Amino acid sequence: MTAIEGLQAALNGLGLKAVEARLENLLEQASKKEPSYAEFLQDLLSCEVDARRTRYLRARLQLAHLPFIKTFDQFDFSFQPSIDERQIRELRSLRFIHEASNVILLGPPGVGKTHLSVALAEAAIQSGFGAYFMTAHDLDNDLGRAYREGRLDRRMRVYLAPKVLIIDEMGYLPLDDLGATIFFQLISARYERGSIILTSNKSYGDWGSIFGDPIIATAILDRLLHHSTTINIRGESYRLKDRKKAGLFPQPGEDAGRPAPFPATERFHNGPRRQGSTSPRKTSAPLTAPGRSENPP
C-alpha cells in the first residue's frame, strides 16, 4: 500500500470524505506552492469544514419545507417601488430573529410577499437558525387533525422549535372556531420566544373575518404586532406583468369599476388590552400549548 493509499484509507475510516476525495489535488497544489505544514493542514481541514457546512445547510433547507429557493438578489425592487429597501436591508441583518420579533408582509396576490419571506428564511438558515415554512391552510389542517387525534401538544412542538416560523397566505381561507383557537395558542406560545414571518392579503382591519371573531383577532394581532415590522406592498402582480404588456388586462384608466387597491397604510392600536379582550372562543374541549398557560400574558 502506497502512502497516498494509506492516507485515503485513514481518511475514509475517520469519515473525512471531502478530504479523501480531494487529497491528490491538495497534495499536488502543495508540491507547487510549498506551503508551511500549518498552511497545508489548514487547507486540508477547511476542505472538510466547507463540505460539512454545505451538507448541514442542505439538510436545514430540506427540513424547512420551503416551497422554492429565492434570494433578495432575485427580487425586482424596481417593480415594487412601494417597498422601502432600507427596511429590507434592516431585516436582512436578522436582528429581528435575535429579538424574537415578527415580520408581517401585507399586500394583494403576486406582489412578492412569499418571495421575501422565503428569502428571509433562507438567509436565516445560512446564518445557522432553524426555519419552518407552512401555509396557513395547511397549518390549520395539520393542527386541527392533531387535536382531534389527541396529539396536539406533541405536534405543536414542531411549530415551536424553529427560531423562525413562516406562515404563508393568511386570510385566503377563513378559520373555523377550532382553527382560530389553536392559532391563538400557537401565536401565544411563540410570543417573545421565536420569530414569525407571516404573509397576508388582508389588511389588519379585516382580520376579524379571518377568525370569525374580532375579539380573538385583536388578541392575535396584539401579540403579533407587539414586536414586529410590517411591510405593506401596494404594487401590481409581478406574475401578471407580461400579460398586461400583451394587452390581456385593462390598462390604467380602463378599470374604474374595479375595487380600490390594497390600503396604503395600516393602523392597529397596541395600547393596554381591554378586560376580557384576549380570551379565545370556547371549544368543545380545552386546548393547551406546551410550556404556556391557557391564558398567556
Determine the fraction of residues in helical runs and give it as a percent range. Answer: 40-55%
Strand order of the largest sheet: 2-3-4-1-5
Radius of gyration: 25 Å
Determine the structural class based on helices, strands and strand pairing.
Answer: alpha/beta
The main sheet comes to:
5 strands, parallel
Shape: elongated
What's the CATH superfamily of the largest domain, by name? P-loop containing nucleotide triphosphate hydrolases
CATH topology of the largest domain: Rossmann fold
CATH class of the largest domain: Alpha Beta
Low-pLDDT residue spans: 255-286, 288-297
Mean pLDDT: 84
Number of strands: 5
Distance between the termini: 69 Å
Q: Just name the CATH architecture of the largest domain.
A: 3-Layer(aba) Sandwich
Give, in order, the helices and strands: HHHHHEHEHHEHEHHEH
Number of helices: 12
Total individual domains: 2
Describe the structure.
- This protein is an alpha/beta fold and 297 residues long.
- It has 2 domains: 61 residues, no CATH class; 181 residues, Rossmann fold, CATH 3.40.50.300.
- Helices cover 47% and strands 9% of the residues.
- The protein has 12 helices and 5 strands.
- It has a 5-stranded parallel sheet.
- Strand 3, helix 9 and strand 4 form a beta-alpha-beta unit.
- Helix 2 runs antiparallel to helix 3, helix 7 packs antiparallel against helix 8 and helix 9 runs parallel beside helix 11.
- The longest helix has 28 residues.
- The chain is elongated and about 75 Å long.
